[in-house]
Amino acid sequence: MSYNMNTCISFENVSIKYGGFDAVRNLYLDIPKGKVTALIGPSGCGKSTVLRSINRMNDLIVGCTITGRVLYEGIDLYSPEIDPVEVRRMIGMVFQQPNPFPKSIYENIAFGARINGYTGNMDQLVEESLKKAAVWEECKDKLNESGCSLSGGQQQRLCIARTIATQPDVILMDEPCSALDPISTLKIEETMHELKKEYTIIIVTHNMQQAVRVSDMTAFYNAEAKGGGTGKVGYLVEFNDTEKIFNSPKQQATKDYISGRFG
Fold first, then answer.
1. d(Cα 149, Cα 163) in Å, to the nearest integer?
2. Other Cβ atoms within 10 Å of 73 Cβ, number
């Protein structure tokens, strides 16, 4: 098997089902290292399902099954000897709604690192993680206060810092700004530009302008009706440099979606 050193995540003929229903079908996709890749498309096309398959979060959903291979730097993430917990440490995730632990700001960062066996200088790790997530200045004088006392945008950046603290290689973001105001959204986007210097980032977003602003690559997914009228199944339409997807897409469906004709 050949392995491209510039590829971080590879999907090889991946199909995902919930119970007996297809959610995503026959996905082939190579996501590059050290870039921001956006997954876009209408609701129900499987974007979040694809994202969650990367760190095996779908394992937690009863009846969800996957076929094909999801490779991380050439390693099959669904191989029997792979520990899903270790996968989730290497491939961290930031969710749509900010979800800080009901603990102090300091412990929000330290808790996961401690569980993962971190033995270095915890004060330094907390500070560095909060700085990388661009929330240190707002937090440095109240580290012992609850993470839940922060504003929504600050909470989301705290969650990014918490993810960084476990020292992942990849950060997944599932619509991380959809619950935030425009100013908080801008801060998250600025943070992403800094983070991609150290991490591979994959983001699901419904915001076309956000995809243009933050991503290097964009994958457009669509959904088609299943036989028998039992809902829709998602599939990849087009994957390319973000600038090409938005300025000169190859597929008519991509052009129709980004121009607002459906979605």
1. 19
2. 17
Written as one string, the DSSP assignment of 92-129 is EEE-SS----SSBHHHHHHHHHHHTT--S-HHHHHHHH
Q: What digits encode the pLDDT tens for the residues 175-228?
A: 999 989 999 999 999 999 999 999 999 999 999 999 999 999 999 999 987 655
- The half-sphere exposure of 85 on its side-chain side, counting CA atoms within 13 A, is 4
Residue (of 147, 196, 184) closest to 36 by Cα position: 196
Q: pTM value?
A: 0.94
- Chain centroid to CA 192: how far? 11
Q: What is the pLDDT of residue 1?
A: 47
pLDDT (mean) for 164-169: 94
- CATH numbers and ranges of domains, the chain: 7-94+172-258 (3.40.50.300)
The label of the residue with tokens 């229903």 reads: 21
Q: What does the alpha-carbon distance between residue 166 and residue 1 come to, in Å, rounded to a whole number?
A: 30
Amino acid identity at 61: I
Picking from 256, 237, 230, 228, the residue whose alpha carbon sits closest to that of residue 23 is 230
d(CA 259, CA 160): 31
